[in-house]
TrEMBL record:
Listed Pfam families: DUF3500
Lineage: Bacteria, Pseudomonadati, Bacteroidota, Chitinophagia, Chitinophagales
Keyword Signal: yes
Protein name as catalogued: DUF3500 domain-containing protein
Record carries keyword Signal: yes
Signal peptide: 1-20
InterPro entries, A to Z: DUF3500
């Protein structure tokens, strides 16, 4: 592991409940540590179209300031900023996914000077001016990691789109053999599909072949017009509990305050409106692709493991009303600046 990235795998232990004011303070601290040239790379107005950019594939044209361009103090400040919105466990997942780039580089037998796989090619971008009385947002993005946050005054309005992926899903060889970063998302999904009764599973299974990729992709509007699968209201009490436990895995990627708000919205929209759909193998067999989706009035959660001989997992959380902060927040920002 490159010594210069050791700080990135340190988990910042922060309180479970952190208001948006703390996030703004952390963002301001991070900005102040940047040089003027770095600030010119990292800072954008809130109403720029760049704020809607969402990509989780390897690329060299991302906007923002790259992790590899940060010094030690700046990296520490970035990790602290992530910790104001994400749970301790999620910050660790983010760092683990970044380090997978080094494992992929070895598995793909790339040359030492090849930079296609690089744990430093993750970028932070800040939109607007962080503050207790402002509308602003920020993004942390790279291969298999993409989080987008929007805040208004002291309220964290949105923390989606939110993507975590893992390639390989299970490390096949080397000192990290068996490492599985998205294990909980995988195991709980299989626990649910396998616990369904025969009748319930027939409703949940929407296709024998899994789609090649998450269906919402990197679209600006994450809408799947017709929810499919089995509805919460059609499940037994035991199956309902397993579905809620699976949702909890994704919601609690965030700090407790925001996770609680998301859960409240899901409940207010009606648990009976939730649906669970599965495609592909219902048995966890190496090389057998599978996919699942949870959809409700307020969110879509997708998981797929189909690529690279079904050893390449993608997960995403999309807020159907407030992705990227939603249109209402943008109008609020523009009204304040007229």
């Amino acid at each position: 592991m490159h010594r210069c990235f050791l700080l990135l795998i340190m988990v910042i232990l922060l309180p479970a409940v952190v208001p948006a004011q703390s996030m703004a303070s952390s963002a301001t601290h991070f900005i102040r540590l940047l040089s003027p040239e770095q600030q010119s790379q990292a800072l954008f107005p809130f109403d720029t179209s760049e704020r809607y950019h969402f990509s989780y594939i390897p690329r060299d044209d991302r906007k923002g300031i790259a992790v590899k361009a940060l010094n030690t103090a700046q990296r520490e400040a970035l990790m602290a900023l992530l910790g104001t919105a994400l749970s301790v466990a999620t910050v660790k997942k983010v760092n683990d996914i970044m380090q997978l780039e080094l494992i992929l580089k070895d598995l793909e037998h790339r040359a030492a000077n090849d930079t296609y796989r690089d744990p430093g090619k993750y970028y932070v971008t800040i939109f607007g001016i962080p503050g207790a009385n402002t509308t602003w947002g920020w993004r942390f993005e790279g291969h298999h990691v993409a989080f987008n946050f929007s805040a208004d005054k002291n309220e964290l309005v949105a923390a989606t789109p939110a993507f975590l992926g893992s390639n390989p899903a299970v490390v096949p060889e080397g000192v990290d053999k068996g490492k599985e970063i998205l294990r909980e998302e995988t195991v709980r999904g299989f626990t649910l599909i396998q616990a369904l009764t025969t009748a319930e599973r027939e409703k949940a299974l929407i296709a024998t072949a899994a789609p090649a990729e998450i269906i919402t992709g990197a679209s600006r509007q994450a809408m799947i017009a017709h929810p499919a699968g089995i509805h919460y209201s059609e499940m037994s009490a035991a199956s309902r509990q397993l579905l809620l436990a699976l949702i909890s895995v994704y919601v609690h990627r965030y700090t407790k305050l925001f996770a609680d708000d998301m859960l409240k919205e899901i409940q207010q929209a009606g648990l009976d409106q939730l649906s669970f759909a599965w495609a592909g193998s219902t048995e966890r067999i190496p090389g057998k692709p599978y996919y699942y989706r949870i959809q409700g009035p307020t969110l879509i959660i997708e998981y797929d493991n189909t690529q690279n001989n079904a050893n390449h997992a993608h997960t995403v959380v999309r807020d159907l009303k407030r992705d990227f902060g939603g249109d209402v927040l943008l109008e609020h920002y523009r009204d304040a600046h007229r």
